[in-house]
């Protein structure tokens, strides 16, 4: 790891440090602030492409990072042809497909460039505030309080204007998606696994989808919301170019982004001119280790990422945006974390580390569970409970809850079934690598490999606190103190993963990429995890699924914004 990465870097320290490098100061392409001139006088900005550094990219010897100097322009003589469209969307994930669908519905001619061979829609559901489904099922959300909690989680370092825009528009965006589900025969509901805690409340905003009678196109993958939008795109004539890599943005003399040079799988180049704008929707940076070291908090630099396809999200759009003159939001960048690297169930029960010691208040949200576990030996923890855990867990949901505490598919219209969570854990016990079962606590300690003496003493002390109704270690609420006394005893493995790094390029409320002085780059927009400042410091899980909700909402709005240009 680079020494500089140990404290994380903001865009200001990044630029200051780069400016001190003579070679960079002499180069006219630092972060896209001074675009290089092509032979014909046009200016161009490069894209990371599939390799993350571009065809003619400058090496790291020229600066602190391989992206500090943008690639040389691809010669016009190498470009086989030119195509004129209204909008080019770079990236066919949740964000890019939503933007393309909205744009085509506004009457625009749209081409989507995707370097992999599939649509990369991923997730478990989509967060949105007060859709028509919320209202139909009687689960309306109080948005003002939810916004306060969101901004406080982000250390109030995010853009409140963007947060308010999300809250005001995510409901209509979701209604747009629900209409498509009705059109194609998919089904949907609200997920019941949100916290009812008065201290750490979450909202019933997580919309989940099943295919129903909708035939998902084979290239669209499993995620129904994005597959619905993709099908709608196809039906309305959006062109998808899979196996194509956006290599370089094209800018005119004023710095306006006018198009993109694309490389096909056979190595030929094509230029797409976009009269309305280019949308960067290339996902996050988690697949690029160098960008992790530059932009993430040290604790997360080498953390496992569960985003699929593995390694595909290499910050291509972030690099393109910087080469065009944009800047990254202040760092370290925030991450959406989940403790899903081990078992899919933990509940509010006692957690111990490899030393057999309890290490935090377990009745907490998934970010806290993930971060606190990452700080333990080997980044692992274990949730410990006894035979009564199914009914104990059902009782606990009256006071708390959340992902990996509830079952992963329960609708708000369904009651929690203790038998279902028992079956989940017993199934993992049979597999033998994420859950264990024993007749004695001594045997359980041996199975999970923790310090036995510490573990037995910790369980004994925990049981005493349960009996007394007071957690003197971490002040966990008494309603969550369930003793560990009746065999069989269970342990489930807790390991954290990065779902996605949710920080990106600074954008204004029109989602235009902005420069250091806050002015927009004409013709260049960013969405999804390529865009920044909706979050900072941490991910606000009080609105579960809001990262996918950003993809949907920003895409829904971008079509209207682009059409109005």
Strand proportion: 15-25%
Please outline the major beta sheet. 10 strands, mixed
Q: Gap between N and C termini, in Å?
A: 44 Å
Radius of gyration: 25 Å
Mean pLDDT: 90
Please give the count of helices.
15
Helix content: 25-40%
Structural class, from helix and strand content? alpha+beta
Secondary structure tally: strands: 19
Morphology: elongated
Low-confidence residue ranges: 1-62
Considering the chains and any ligands shown, give keywords for the structure.
single chain, 565 residues, alpha+beta, 19 strands, 18% strand, elongated
Structure description:
The protein has helices at about 10-20, 20-25, 95-105, 130-135, 145-155, 160-185, 225-235, 290-295, 315-325, 365-375, 390-395, 420-430, 440-450, 450-470, 545-565, and strands at about 35, 45, 80-90, 110-115, 125, 185-190, 205-210, 240, 245-250, 255-265, 270-280, 335-340, 350, 380-385, 435-440, 490-495, 495-500, 510-515, 520-525. About 55% of the residues are buried. It is of the alpha+beta class and about 575 residues long. Helices cover about 30% and strands about 20% of the residues. Strands 1, 2, 3, 4, 8, 9, 10, 11, 18 and 19 form a ten-stranded mixed beta sheet that branches. Strands 13-14-16-15 form a four-stranded antiparallel beta sheet. Strand 3 (about 80-90), helix 3 and strand 4 (about 110-115) form a beta-alpha-beta unit. The protein has 15 helices and 19 strands. Helix 3 (about 95-105) packs parallel to helix 7 (about 225-235) and helix 6 crosses helix 7.
């Amino acid at each position: 790891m680079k020494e500089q990465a140990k404290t994380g870097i903001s865009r200001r320290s990044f630029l200051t440090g780069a400016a001190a490098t003579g070679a960079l100061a002499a180069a006219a392409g630092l972060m896209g602030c001074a675009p290089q001139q092509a032979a014909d006088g046009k200016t161009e900005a490069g894209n990371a492409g599939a390799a993350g550094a571009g065809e003619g990219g400058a090496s790291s010897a020229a600066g602190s990072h391989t992206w500090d100097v943008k690639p040389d322009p691809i010669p016009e003589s190498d470009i086989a042809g030119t195509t004129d469209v209204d909008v080019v969307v770079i990236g066919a994930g949740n964000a890019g497909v939503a933007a393309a669908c909205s744009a085509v519905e506004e009457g625009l001619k749209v081409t989507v460039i995707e370097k992999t061979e599939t649509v990369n829609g991923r997730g478990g559901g989509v967060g949105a505030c007060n859709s028509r489904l919320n209202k139909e099922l009687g689960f309306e959300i109080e948005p003002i309080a939810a916004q306060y909690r969101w901004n406080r989680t982000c250390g109030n370092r995010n853009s409140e204007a963007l947060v308010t825009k999300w809250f005001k528009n995510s409901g209509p965006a979701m209604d747009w998606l629900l209409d498509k589900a009705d059109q194609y025969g998919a089904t949907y509901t609200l997920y019941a696994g949100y916290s009812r805690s008065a201290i750490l409340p979450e909202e019933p905003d997580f919309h989940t989808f099943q295919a129903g009678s909708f035939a998902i196109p084979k290239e669209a993958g499993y995620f129904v919301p994005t597959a619905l939008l993709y099908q709608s795109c196809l039906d309305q004539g959006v062109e998808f170019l899979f196996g194509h890599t956006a290599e370089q943005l094209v800018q005119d003399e004023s710095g306006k982004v006018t198009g993109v040079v694309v490389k096909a799988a056979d190595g030929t180049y094509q230029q797409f001119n976009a009269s309305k704008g280019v949308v960067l929707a290339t996902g996050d940076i988690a697949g690029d280790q160098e960008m992790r070291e530059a932009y993430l908090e040290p604790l997360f630099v080498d953390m496992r990422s569960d985003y699929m396809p593995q390694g595909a999200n290499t910050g291509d759009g972030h690099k393109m945006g910087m080469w065009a003159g944009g800047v990254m939001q202040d760092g370290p960048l925030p991450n959406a974390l989940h403790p899903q690297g081990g078992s899919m169930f933990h509940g509010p029960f006692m957690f111990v580390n490899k030393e057999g010691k309890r290490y935090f208040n377990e009745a907490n949200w998934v970010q806290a569970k993930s971060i606190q576990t990452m700080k333990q030996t080997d980044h692992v923890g274990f949730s410990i409970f006894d035979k009564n855990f199914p009914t104990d867990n059902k009782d606990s949901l009256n006071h708390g809850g959340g992902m990996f505490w509830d079952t992963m598919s329960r609708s708000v219209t369904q009651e929690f079934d203790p038998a279902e969570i028992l079956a989940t854990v017993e199934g993992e016990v049979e597999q033998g690598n994420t859950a264990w079962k024993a007749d004695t606590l001594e045997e359980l300690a041996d199975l999970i490999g923790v310090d036995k003496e510490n573990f037995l003493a910790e369980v004994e002390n925990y049981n005493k606190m349960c009996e007394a109704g007071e957690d003197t270690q971490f002040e966990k609420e008494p309603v969550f103190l369930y003793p560990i006394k009746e065999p069989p005893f269970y342990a489930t493995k807790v390991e954290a993963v990065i779902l996605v790094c949710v920080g990106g390029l600074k954008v204004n409320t029109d989602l235009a990429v902005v420069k250091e002085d806050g002015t927009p780059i004409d013709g260049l927009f960013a969405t999804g995890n390529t865009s920044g400042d909706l979050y900072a410091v941490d991910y606000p899980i009080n609105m579960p699924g809001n990262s996918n909700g950003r993809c949907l909402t920003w895409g829904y709005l971008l079509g209207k914004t682009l059409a109005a240009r």
